[in-house]
Amino acid sequence: MPDPIWLDTNVVDRVIKGDIAMERELRTLRSRGHALLMVPAANNELLNGNPLKMKRNKPVWEQAPTPANKVRMQNGMRRLGIALDRAGFNLPQSTRVKYIMQDHVPLKKGQTVPSSVKNISESDNLVLAQIKASAEARGVFRLVRCNSLMSFNGADEIAN
Predict the structure, then answer these.
(1) Residue extents of the structural domains in the chain
(2) Residues contacting 25, CB < 8 A, separation 6+
(3) 102-127: per-residue pLDDT in tens?
(4) Which H helix or E strand runs over 131?
(5) Do the bridges between strand 82-84 and strand 36-38 make them parallel or antiparallel, or are there none, so unpaired?
(6) pLDDT digits (tens, 9 = 90+) for 48-60
(7) Rounded CA gap, 26 and 108, in Å?
(8) Bridge partners of 148?
(9) Rounded distance, CA 153 to CA 144, Å?
(10) Kind and range of the H or E element at 94?
């Protein structure tokens, strides 16, 4: 069976809102045997909004998706065969925390934190850490990140 494909919130949101080219690509991947997965952090962003990007001076309920949008997203995920991926929870919590803290990224001489910490949002870091944990739990050790779901040619490896 081919490796699973982990989907980001933005990809799923675009497909459910009508991006037919991207939906065709997801359907093609599924027909080739790839499982379409979302980790809990990405799923939570899709259904409840991104709490790390919400404005402090505005009530959360005004910024979160409406109940109707939430149902539409859940139905869209079901229609596309996208599953919630909890496999990462099979790893010890200490390992998962290390991934969030990016302790797995090699440091250059004199560095105290990886430069990647400065180049990624907190919410994206959480999603990527959960994907890494899930991949490890599933025995997938060479993750490939695609800049676009439509093109796998410009893919580069995520730091192991």
Answers:
(1) 5-157
(2) 149, 150
(3) 776 777 777 777 666 667 778 888 88
(4) helix 122-138
(5) parallel
(6) 888 777 788 888 8
(7) 38
(8) 151
(9) 11
(10) helix 93-100
Of 25, 130, 23, 32, nearest to 76 by C-alpha is 23
Amino acid at site 19: D
**Angle, in degrees to the nearest 10, between helices 9-16 and 67-80:** 90
Distance in angstroms (rounded) separating the CA atoms of residues 105 and 117: 10
Binned at pLDDT 50, 70 and 90, residue 155 comes out as very low
Largest CA distance in the chain: 51
Q: What is the mean pLDDT of residues 32-50?
A: 92
Q: How many CA atoms lie within 13 A of 115 on its CB side?
A: 3
Q: Whole-model pTM above 0.90?
A: no
- Rounded Cα distance, 150 and 105, in Å: 28
What pLDDT score was predicted for residue 40?
Answer: 96
H or E element that contains 123? helix 122-138
